[in-house]
Design a protein that fits this description.
alpha/beta
Length: 242
C-alpha cells in the first residue's frame, strides 16, 4: 500500500459522504494503491451508518470506531496504527481541507527534496476573524519557541512517513506539533501551500478560547521535550548493531 488517508470525524454525518467522494476523485486517477480510513471518535449521530453504507461502492474505505470520544490526536493515532500505507495523509473531517491538494502533496513527497513530512499551509483562511487572529498569534508564538519553520501547523492537511510518526511520543493535541516533533527526530519538513474552504455543514467541535488554553499548555510541553532531545542519533562508521 502506497498511501493511507486518515480522517478523524466526530458527528460529521453531513460531510463524510461528500468528503469520501472528493478523496476518491482526487486519488484514483493518480494510479497508486491507497486506502481511506475514517476514524469515528464516538459520534452519537449517524456518521458511522453513513460510512458503513458506502463500503460496498468504495473498496478503498476502512472504518475505525472509538467506543467513546478521545479527541482528534487519538483519532489520528488510531488511524495511523491501522494504516497499511508507507505514507499517511491526514485531512480534517469538516471538508474545509481540499482533497484536490492530495495529488500535489504525493508528488512532492516523491520529489527531489525527499521530505519526511509535508505540512499544508492554508493560503487563505475561510474562518471567522476571531479564529484567524487567534491562530495567527498561536502560530507566531509556536514558531518563536519551537522554531519548526512552519507558518500554519493548525492546518489538517499533512503527509508523512508512517514509520516516522510511530517514533513520536504520543500526547493529547500532538497533531498540532507534528512538524516540531519531526524536526526533533532530524526529519526533513516541507511546507506546501493548500486550499482552505468555508464549512458548509455541521458545527465546530470546540471554541477559540478552548483551543488557546490547551495550545499554550502543550506548547510549553513540546518546548521542554525539545530541550531534552538527543535526536537524531548518529552512529560511528562501522558502529551498527551486531
Amino acid at each position: 500500500m502506497d498511501l493511507s488517508i486518515v480522517i478523524p470525524v466526530l458527528n460529521e454525518s453531513e460531510n463524510v459522504g461528500p468528503l469520501l467522494d472528493e478523496v476518491l476523485a482526487a486519488l484514483r486517477p493518480v494510479g497508486i494503491a491507497f486506502e481511506v480510513i475514517f476514524v469515528d471518535d464516538g459520534s452519537d449521530d449517524d456518521t458511522a451508518a453513513k460510512l458503513a453504507a458506502r463500503q460496498a461502492d468504495a473498496p478503498e474505505l476502512r472504518i475505525v470506531r472509538h467506543a467513546q470520544r478521545y479527541g482528534q490526536s487519538m483519532g489520528v493515532r488510531s488511524g495511523v496504527l491501522a494504516a497499511r500505507g508507507l505514507w499517511v495523509g491526514t485531512l480534517d473531517g469538516d471538508r474545509q481541507n481540499d482533497p484536490a491538494d492530495l495529488p500535489s502533496l504525493w508528488a512532492a513527497a516523491n520529489g527531489p527534496q525527499k521530505p519526511d513530512l509535508l505540512a499544508g499551509e492554508r493560503i487563505k483562511r475561510n474562518d471567522p476573524w476571531q479564529k484567524r487572529y487567534a491562530s495567527r498569534f498561536a502560530n507566531w508564538l509556536r514558531n518563536k519557541m519551537l522554531k519548526d519553520g512552519v507558518k500554519d501547523t493548525g492546518c489538517g492537511v499533512k503527509m508523512f512517513r508512517r514509520s516516522l510518526f510511530l517514533e513520536f511520543p504520543h500526547f493529547d493535541h500532538m497533531h498540532r506539533f507534528l512538524p516540531a516533533l519531526a524536526r526533533r527526530h532530524g526529519a526533513t519538513v516541507l511546507p506546501i501551500p493548500v486550499n482552505h474552504r468555508p464549512r458548509d455543514a455541521g458545527t465546530s467541535k470546540y471554541g477559540t478560547f478552548d483551543r488557546a488554553l490547551v495550545g499554550i499548555t502543550d506548547l510549553f510541553g513540546v518546548w521542554w521535550l525539545n530541550r531534552r532531545s538527543k535526536f537524531p542519533i548518529r552512529l560511528r562508521d562501522g558502529g551498527g548493531i551486531n
